[in-house]
Amino acid sequence: MKKRELEEGKMAGKYRVLDTLGEGGEGRVYLAEDESLSRKVALKCIRQAEKTEEEIRREAAFLRDLRHPMLPVVYELFYEDDWYLAMEYIEGETLQHYLESHGRVEEAQGCAWADALLDVLCYLHKRKPPVIYRDLKPDNIMVCRDGMLKLVDFGGAALKSYGERCVGRMAATVGYAAPEQWTGKGQNPRADERSDLYAFGKILYYMVTGADPGKPPYTALSIAHYNPLLSAGLERVIRRCIEEEPEARYQVAEEAGRDLHRRDLWKRKGTAGGFLRHVEKQVYLTQKIGVGL
Q1: d(Cα 71, Cα 88) in Å, to the nearest integer?
Q2: CA 206 → CA 119, 129, 152, 219, 276, distances in Å?
Q3: Mean pLDDT of 215-231
Q4: pTM to 2 decimals?
Q5: Phi and psi dihedrals of 276, rounded to 5?
Q6: Is the distance from CB of 122 to CB of 133 less than 8 angstroms?
Q7: Please, which pLDDT band fits residue 289 given cuts at 50, 70 and 90?
Q8: CA nearest 206: which of 282, 92, 72, 102?
Q9: What CA–CA distance (Å, rounded) separates 257 from 263?
């Protein structure tokens, strides 16, 4: 049965539809107003094709119990011809749109946003059982009007399972999903905390270089090619996050956070690598800014 589409001005429960915000794999999302409280909400119409009522209720309860400044608040779940989930409406723009409009951000800003992302990942990963986001990408991160970040769209998130193979569809986005989230070499897709940290590294890469991992030819070029002014310490954090093998990455978000704050201690001094980085920076400044060697 085809799901009904709500037009502007139509009611769903106590919510009046104002606009359509978008549509994803989990359903259509509307901007609506709770007229009794004069409050705008994001109203998600949930696709039921592959979900039972029990699964929908369980997922809504899972989202309701999440409490973190970077996560939207869930208000209620209700049924009226379709299932709807009313959530906090986040005003702002996606990080993807922000970076496409503004280009890369300064290192200090990138580190501040990275610190915030690691904090929410730490919160999710420390829950019992851990919550693995699985589809971390700029399109699922909102830049609010006050400059703070919010993590939205938990359609791909899942509770971590132990000793079980992941079957069925795996939430994954080209350029951001870790290698183990794709099928291949006779293996089923899987994801754990390290998979989220891989995606985090790709996002941080994008923020401070302006090179979108989802668009070639970024993979063939070094981080220094895009931004030779980036500190060696931050570059090392990024590189460790995006190692191909999960065992070579940071194992927990706290570990990445500690190194993020230690980046000023990682300057290359008295090495061939340090000299090469110095030359790269000087060439970059000459070409882009007009500063002489």
Answers
A1: 9
A2: 19, 30, 19, 12, 23
A3: 78
A4: 0.84
A5: -65, -40
A6: no
A7: low
A8: 102
A9: 10
Nearest partner of 1 among 102, 81, 68, judged by Cα: 81
Could you tell me where the DSSP H helices lie in the chain? 53-64, 95-102, 107-125, 193-209, 223-226, 232-241, 253-261, 272-288
**Cα–Cα nearest to 202, from 228, 235, 176, 223:** 176
Alpha-carbon gap, residue 208 to 275, rounded angstroms: 22
Token pair for residue 226? 């895009």
Contact 267, 275 (CB under 8 A): no
Phi-psi category of 128—alpha, beta or left, where left has phi over 0 and alpha has psi -120 to 50? beta
34 contacts 15 by C-beta, under 8 angstroms: yes
* CA 217 – CA 223 distance, rounded (Å): 12
Burial tier of 37 (Cβ tally within 10 Å: 0-12, 13-18, 19+): exposed
Q: Residue 12 has which token pair? A: 């769903």
Residues found in the chain: 293
Helix (H) or strand (E) holding 86: strand 82-88
Which residues are catalytically annotated? 135
pLDDT digits (tens, 9 = 90+) for 235-253: 999 999 999 999 999 999 9
Spatial contact of 131 and 119, defined as CB atoms under 8 Å apart? no
Place of tokens 């890469």: 205
SS3 184: strand
